[in-house]
Amino acid sequence: MRHPRLIILVAAAALGLSGSAVAQSVYGSGGTPCQNWTINKPKKWQHLGDLDWLMGYVSGINRSRGPGSKLMGQATLRDADTYVSQFCAANPAMPIFQAADSWIAALDQQGAR
Questions:
Q1: Are 74 and 31 in contact (CB under 8 A)?
Q2: Domain that includes residue 83, residue range
Q3: Is residue 63 part of a domain?
Q4: Does residue 76 come out as left (phi exceeding 0), alpha (psi in the -120 to 50 range) or beta?
Q5: Which of 10, 18, 25, 36 has an alpha carbon 20 to 30 Å from 43's alpha carbon atom?
Q6: Residues 49 and 55 sit within 8 Å (Cβ to Cβ)
Q7: Is 24 helix (H, G, I), strand (E, B) or coil?
Q8: What is the pTM of this model?
Q9: Looking at the domain assignment, is residue 56 inside a domain?
Q10: CATH code assigned at 66
Q11: Short-list 39, 35, 74, 72, CA closest to 54
Q12: Continuous segment of H or E residues that includes residue 13
């Protein structure tokens, strides 16, 4: 006789759903330290690349939330740049994606979506 709970637990563990943290890869600018954002800010083309990564990241989160999601609400690219720039200046060793996650959390708190 099979044990349904055991099967579910084994399947959950295999899928990484067992409650333990599973590392995720972040590609592009977002996986680099915040100090790179700060260094790139005065360099037009490099900073535009960082901003493009940020908007792609936010778009991906927005899409994952389903139809009708408007994560940024009334926020602008300038708002995003200001927030991430301040976060990165204060936390140079943290990866840029954590600055983006912090901004997304702030948007959520404001009810921007």
A1: no
A2: 27-110
A3: yes
A4: beta
A5: 25
A6: no
A7: coil
A8: 0.76
A9: yes
A10: 1.10.890
A11: 72
A12: helix 4-14
